[in-house]
Amino acid sequence: MPQCLTVGHLLRQLQNLDPDLPIRLAVNPDWPFAHYLGTDVVVGDGMAFIAENGQEGYLPASVRNALAWT
Predict the structure, then answer these.
(1) CA-to-CA distance for 65 and 53, rounded, in angstroms?
(2) Rounded to two decimals, what is the model's pTM?
């Protein structure tokens, strides 16, 4: 996965997933919490932005392991 994720890369990653599957953001390996994503996409300065929209709780251990955050 490139460090600079593009809309195309993200679409390819998500295209075969259930469209009703909730999405969470894993932010920091030192504080492994799951965060909600905002529902708006804002385009500015040549980039697309999706805001974080609050913390849900701890990131599941299986996800931390898959990200090598253990």
Answers:
(1) 24
(2) 0.81
